[in-house]
Every structure is written in C-alpha cells, then in structure tokens.
C-alpha cells in the first residue's frame, strides 16, 4: 500500500519547490530584471535573459508585464507608460511644444501618487549605480528617441530639453531648493515653457 503523506511532510515538500504561485513568480522576475537592468542597462537586457535569470519561461514575463518597457516601469515603480506620455505631449503644433512638455512634466511630478513614485525613482538613480545605469539607458534609448521622432527634433535638441526637465526635477523634488519649491505650477510653466520653446526653435 502506498504510504499516505502526513500534513507536515506535504507542507515541507511544498516549501522545497521554486514556485509558490503567481506572486512568487512575479517577484522572481522583478528581482532578475532589477539585477540585469542595473548590470547591463535597458537596451542590452532581453526578456529571454530575464526569464533565464528568474528561472521561468519567457512567456511568463510577457504574461505578467506585457513588454520589456512594462517590466522596466514596474522595476522602477513608475506608474503608467512614460513613453506614451512623452509622445502625447510631443504631438501637436511645434510652436507650443515647450509649454506642452513642461505642463505634462509638472502634472506628472505634482501628482500625489505618481509624483511620489517618480521622486523615489530619481532618488534611487542618484544613490545607486545600477538604478542610474538602468534609468539612463532607458532615457537615452527609449524616451529621448520617442520625443525626437514624434516632434521631429534632432538628438542634440532633445538632449538639451532633457537636461532642463530633469535638472528641474532634481532641484525641485529631490534637492528641494527653495528658489524652485517656492514657485507654483503655473509659475513653473510660465518660466520654463518659453525656455524649452527657445531650445526647440533654435534646434533642428
């Protein structure tokens, strides 16, 4: 007669397995992605390499996160899709691009939920080399090309715009310099919109 497992033996056998359910699989994928994005950057990290690192089928990565971009935003804890927001802001008349970009930028950073997540991401990028590499590669390889393509701008122009908006984020939301935090959102838009527009108008 086949022996019947005791509850304790069954419990111990369950614990010895690699997977404990979907939540464990998702956590393993996030852990693997965080490691590989930090080590290799966004562009050079493939969905397959993340699946291999996590010990799961690559289809499970797509199942849980949809795409490599979706996985990256989950790793960095950024709500929503930053690329779609960039392209939405870049769509429209070039003559008002500077104001649209800074309006979109501040509306995201001033949002109670999204702003907190983005500040945590920025703080992580400043303090951790792996996070900095991952975010820097994502910005250079995904965000800036999306802006350049949608708005018809050169890479040089987009780099100048990026230095302005991320410099503003650093000063207002991370360093919290009084000369930046004292401004209202409308004042930020009024002051930075024309500056970014000048970069657009002078660029190619």
Automatic annotation (TrEMBL):
Residues 46-65 bind DNA. Keywords: DNA-binding. One of its GO terms (molecular function) is transcription cis-regulatory region binding. Transmembrane segments: none annotated. Residues 1-26 are annotated as: Disordered. Residues 23-83 form the HTH tetR-type domain. SUPFAM superfamilies: Homeodomain-like, Tetracyclin repressor-like, C-terminal domain. InterPro entries: Homeodomain-like_sf (IPR009057), HTH-type_TetR-like_transc_reg (IPR050109), HTH_TetR (IPR001647), Tet_transcr_reg_TetR-rel_C_sf (IPR036271), TetR_C_16 (IPR041678). The keyword DNA-binding applies. Residues 1-11 have a biased composition (Basic and acidic residues). PANTHER family: HTH-TYPE TRANSCRIPTIONAL REGULATOR RUTR, TRANSCRIPTIONAL REGULATORY PROTEIN. This is TetR family transcriptional regulator. It comes from Gordonia phthalatica. The lineage of its organism: Bacteria, Bacillati, Actinomycetota, Actinomycetes, Mycobacteriales.
């Amino acid at each position: 007669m086949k022996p019947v497992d005791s509850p304790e033996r069954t419990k111990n056998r369950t614990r010895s397995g690699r997977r404990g359910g979907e939540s464990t699989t998702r956590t393993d994928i996030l852990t693997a992605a965080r490691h590989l994005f930090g080590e290799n950057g966004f562009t050079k990290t493939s969905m397959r390499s993340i699946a291999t690192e996590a010990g799961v089928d690559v289809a499970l990565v797509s199942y849980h996160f949809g795409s490599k971009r979706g996985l990256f935003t989950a790793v960095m804890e950024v709500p929503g899709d930053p690329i779609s927001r960039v392209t939405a802001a870049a769509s429209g008349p070039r003559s008002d691009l500077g104001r649209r970009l800074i309006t979109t930028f501040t509306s995201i950073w001033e949002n109670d939920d999204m702003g907190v997540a983005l500040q945590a991401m920025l703080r992580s990028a400043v303090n951790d080399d792996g996070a900095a590499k991952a975010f820097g590669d994502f910005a250079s390889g995904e965000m800036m090309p999306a802006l350049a393509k949608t708005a018809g701008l050169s890479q040089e122009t987009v780099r100048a715009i990026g230095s302005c908006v991320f410099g503003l984020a650093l000063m207002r939301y991370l360093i919290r310099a009084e000369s930046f935090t004292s401004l209202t959102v409308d004042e930020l838009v009024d002051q930075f919109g024309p500056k970014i527009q000048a970069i657009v108008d002078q660029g190619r």
